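Risk register update: the risk of archive-format incompatibility is retired. Evidence:
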Amino acid sequence: MKTVIIGASGGIGKAISTQLINHADKTDIFVLQGRSQEKLAEFLQLRSHDLDSKKILVQYEFSADLKDFALADSSTSSKEINTDFDTLLLNIKTCDRLIVCYGPFLQKPLHKMTVSDWTSTANLDFALPGILVSLALPHMIEQKYGDILLFGGTATDTITAFKTNAAYGAAKIAVGSLVKSVASNYAEYGIRCNAILPGFVKTEYVSEEQEKHYISLLNGKSMISTKEIAEYAENIISQRIFNGELLRFDKNWERPGNWERPV
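Archived output:
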């Protein structure tokens, strides 16, 4: 079983990688991608006992520039691999499980959005997951098996308005449509596609000020831990019950009409 995890160097992606590796068979292969090569190397060092027990981890880094993916439109065989990026493409094209955790958050009101803001948000938060899904699907169709897990944003299970992160929210709502399209069109091939829509998750990227703000929005409840998200993700993938679902994991949080994330 080959699992590709995009965004594995920190936060939710790192927690999911840890969770799945802890419960993997010795024959399982994990292809971990992250923007921070240093963090990935550190993670591999911590997981050295898994390498010794033949759980294979591979690490890659790629630019956020989607022009890199022009390579994906050509047929990449094992004889044509020249770079780590080529190898990553080949692994995505031959994976059994695809988990995409990467999706940068942008907080800007609409009247302050630039052309660059729009194209970057649309590309990285929606087009990138779509590209990765399209790369993975042919192999999954051929083998009649596949699991795809994407990540939406907080309260993006329905079309709604956002005060200070409208572009990000719109992109993540579009991810929900992608999930349902994959589930509808490829279920007959044994392919499942779902998305987790996390609430306020405590990661290393959350400042003390942000944490206080989120806890106030949660009426004093604690933030969600990355381990909780990782355990939930493992259940979704291993049990293979859900398909085409936008699964909120936000402690039943109801968004106030005037809420906004802190800068």
